[in-house]
Amino acid sequence: MVNRLMFKKILVANRGEIALRIMRSAREMGISTLAVFSEADRKMPFVQFADEGFCIGAGESSQSYLSGDRIIRAALDLKADAIHPGYGFLSEDAAFASQVAGAGLVFIGPSAPSIAMMGNKLAARKAARELGVPLVPGTGSALRSLKEARETMDRIGLPVLIKAAAGGGGKGIRIVSSAADLEDQLRLAVSEAKNAFGDDAVYLEKYIHSPRHIEIQILGDQHGHLVHLFERECSIQRRHQKLIEESPSCNLTAESRQKMGKCATDIARASGYYGAGTIEFLVDDELRYYFLEMNTRLQVEHPVTELVTGLDLVKEQIRIAAGEKLSVIQDDIHLHGHAIELRICAEDPTRNFLPQTGKLEIYRRPHGPGIRVDDGYDQGLEIPIHYDSLLSKLIAWGRNREEAIERMVRAIDEYEISGIPTTLGFGKWAMRQTAFAGGHYDTRFIEKYYLPEALASPDPLTEKIAALLGVKIREEENKGYFREPVNADLHSKWKNRRQKR
Ligand code: ADP
Ligand code: ADP
Ligand code: MG
């Protein structure tokens, strides 16, 4: 049945993998897609995929993906009726959401007041506290003076984190381990917050030593229906940003899952929330959970939830924005199997995950059972300097966690990327760690177990000699018994060599 109120054309105000991801769902719904892109992104797959494309400006985000005025103008000129902001960029900008509505367009996301309330860390903490949700101890409002910071630090005890109220993506977080550092760190944090997020509000939070990051995905429509889609465990992080995410978490019990799910929908209900959203928690060894923040948008790691629930979160977001009711009720939503995502970033894991630019000389995706690749680049493309380092997300589904891990490792081996260092090799290393396999890990996993040397491979010549020697030995061993398909073996050894990264 065709819904006559459904959008005809959606402008996707984002780039890379998430722009493509959103357009795919729109296309399945019969909605045409408009890509707005920067000069640096002309050749990107999301531009090729879109029904229409429009170049909105130079490579710098401020001239393109952060220019709300240009984006709205493009939507009006090219007759789009809704704007999907993806994640990052303008997705949690309440002023942009209301500007979109003011221009007679639909913002595919929560209402502007919901973003203002829940997208800001301090405002969200206040809302959670009023509901009696446990919070990480810290300040209730923006710090006004060094004196206030000192008093809070004395009350909650060292170490503490200074956090930017408008921060995100792991940026805007500073750790203070000694009282003498507070003044300097605070000054730096305030100026960074102002420059990076245009908002100098910062606050203090107690640093929890080895927590797990577990978050609950929620969906709400404009008719007051809210559901949660269980949890994602995202404890494997570098620079306070996730690298590996999975669902379900092997640490939650059915009871804690239920409790956290209810807590998340209560928070959303209290703020009249609609759209997709995520409530993030820190969880300790006793499964006590503390509200961390809410992300009022689609998250990078949403595919793991899609694979274990069978729902398409982007379609749900579009339907909700068009005023439709949720397609499911809580009792319809079940967990099926296990899914793990690895963020493949253009970063060098042997050099502190330093972001890299360069050209994707070889780029071949893995395929096969249980594998999903959400990526934004193709072979031959350059990684621009202006944006996030995320190239691709490799997502593996299995009937259980072991199968998901085996598929992930197999797909990492199949993935060929050269020309630029990535986190692929790190992902394989992580999958093979006892702590990961046993599910006993927290946000300090990398700090505790990872040494860059773990990824160092022997030089190519040594490997070539070893591979040829291996083939020769097997040939000798098999002589006189049966004929071995030597070439097949040689091929697989060569392939292994090429995949070392
Ligand atoms: P998620 O919260 O979806 O797990 P990230 O924290 O990695 O993912 O954020 C995804 C992207 O959005 C990153 O590029 C990050 O820099 C950007 N981002 C997230 N929040 C903000 C924010 N408040 N301000 C600017 N950029 C943000
Ligand atoms: P962002 O908006 O950048 O995602 P978050 O507040 O969600 O910021 O924090 C990002 C990550 O930083 C968390 O997932 C966690 O690993 C770490 N972190 C944040 N707050 C704390 C805390 N109080 N104690 C320990 N770790 C924290
Ligand atoms: Mg967060």
Write the layout of secondary structure elements.
Blueprint: E1 9-12, H1 16-28, E2 32-38, H2 45-49, E3 52-57, H3 68-77, E4 82-84, H4 94-102, E5 106-107, H5 112-118, H6 121-130, H7 146-156, E6 160-168, E7 171-176, H8 182-197, E8 202-206, E9 212-220, E10 226-238, E11 241-247, H9 254-270, E12 275-283, E13 289-295, H10 302-309, H11 313-321, E14 338-345, E15 347-348, E16 354-355, E17 358-359, E18 362-364, E19 371-375, E20 382-383, E21 390-398, H12 401-414, E22 416-418, H13 424-431, H14 434-437, H15 445-449, H16 460-478, H17 486-499
Parallel strand pairs: 1-2, 1-4, 2-3, 4-5
Antiparallel strand pairs: 6-7, 6-8, 9-10, 9-12, 10-11, 11-14, 12-13, 14-21, 15-16, 17-20, 18-22, 19-21
Helix pairs in contact: 4-5, 12-13, 16-17
One adenosine-5'-diphosphate (ADP) binds next to β6 and β11.
